[in-house]
Design goal:
The chain is of the alpha/beta class. It has 14 helices and 16 strands. Helix 3 links the parallel strand 5 and strand 6.
Length: 373
């Protein structure tokens, strides 16, 4: 099969585990660069034999905290992608980073990284302390400035709907973020995930999450402020100036192929005409053992059913302002639900194109529940 391919590489280590995080992360206790490079390269080699004729359009180092990874690991993965597939013209190579690792930005750029995604989360010192971050507001601003001077494209993450946060405070935070010159912002509503430190704190009554009304007001403010600044939302949480959208994330939202490499990584890839879902071993030790022994660390490698493909298509596509292109099978299965949601103002339909309205994106979980009831 010919065509494009995206690759996600999961680096599972963090200097500390943030209290809101439910990702597959582990405390960083030092990593053997040679061992990790061999394991990740082995997985890439495994998949290259099944995806010949492709070109890599996007390579994304996520985590965890990839800015903690030994530089030879980053360099080795980039070199393997070049050797095994080759990059398309103007590829997007993204690395997630923390402000504390700003001194390493020039090294990452020299290794081929073209886009940095920076976990700022806030410029407010009290908010950063609450979120368990290891930087303060001054250091966060300095890291944004350094990233903008080093990389062609930069994203910064911010978390809103913190306890007691007002629309006025959020407006000031967004104004400060926009004033830096950032062309892409990822704005995430604070969610208390089961099993996290925040979940335990809330269960003990130490603090209460923002209520739905306050969350909606903060969400609406973000939409209006970023749009007025020329960075409108193109997905529920992502805002960008024209030409600065995340190509890698759009691979997910459009249902295109991507490989999931590294501990606990998920993938969607078409092999011999069959779209498959994949997942690798979650723990670093298990992942390394399997990848070095077998050439891959797959624990799941299964064909997606038609229903699974349809659910994923709509769940991902309706997050974006572009929506999804419904085929005959989609309309046969979901036509009445689509019509009802359109009548209630949550979806719009133009021919085969189905798009969530602003209200639909705000309440997307409920919309999807009705769509697939």
């Amino acid at each position: 099969m010919t065509g494009s391919l995206a690759i996600y590489v999961h680096w599972p280590f963090c200097a500390a585990i943030c209290p809101y995080c439910d990702f597959n992360v582990h405390k960083d206790r030092g990593a053997d660069a040679g061992v990790w490079t061999r394991a990740l390269t082995a997985e890439l080699q495994h998949w290259s034999a099944l995806t010949q004729g492709r070109r890599v359009t996007s390579l994304y180092f996520g985590g965890g905290t990839p800015s903690l990874a030994p530089l030879p690991v980053i360099e080795g993965v980039v070199a393997a992608a070049v050797r095994l597939w080759g990059f398309s013209d103007d590829p997007e190579i993204t690395l997630e980073a923390n402000p504390a690792d700003a001194a390493r930005f020039p090294d990452f750029r020299a290794a081929g990284v073209t886009r940095l995604s920076l976990g700022v989360q806030s410029f407010d010192d009290a908010a950063l302390k609450f979120l368990g971050r290891d930087h303060d507001g001054r250091r966060g601003r300095a890291a944004v400035d350094a990233a903008l001077q080093t990389f062609p494209r930069v994203n910064a993450d911010f978390i809103y709907a913190r306890p007691g946060q007002t629309v006025g405070q959020w407006t000031e935070e967004l104004a400060a973020a926009l004033a830096t010159g950032l062309q892409h912002l990822s704005l995430y509503q604070l969610t208390v995930e089961p099993g996290t430190a925040f979940d335990r704190q809330v269960m003990k009554g130490r603090w209460a999450p923002a209520d739905d009304g306050d969350c909606a007001d903060l969400f609406d403010a973000a939409q209006a402020i970023t749009a007025a600044a020329g960075l409108p939302a193109y997905e529920i949480s992502n805002h960008a100036r024209e030409g600065h959208r995340s190509r890698h994330n759009e691979t997910y939202w459009r249902g295109e192929d991507y490989l999931g490499i590294g501990p606990g990584a998920h993938g969607r890839v078409t092999v011999e005409g069959e779209r498959r879902t994949t997942e690798t071993a979650r723990t670093p030790a298990d992942y390394l053992a399997r990848a070095l022994r077998d050439g891959h660390a797959l624990t799941v490698n299964a064909a997606l059913t038609e229903d699974e493909r349809r659910i994923e298509k709509f769940a991902m596509g309706l997050r974006t302002i572009d929506g999804v292109e419904a085929v005959a099978g989609d309309l046969a299965a979901l036509g009445p639900a689509i019509a009802a949601l359109e009548g209630d103002g949550f979806l719009t339909r133009a021919g085969a194109r189905i798009t969530a309205t602003a209200d639909g994106r705000r309440l997307l979980n409920a919309v999807l529940g009705r769509l697939f009831a």
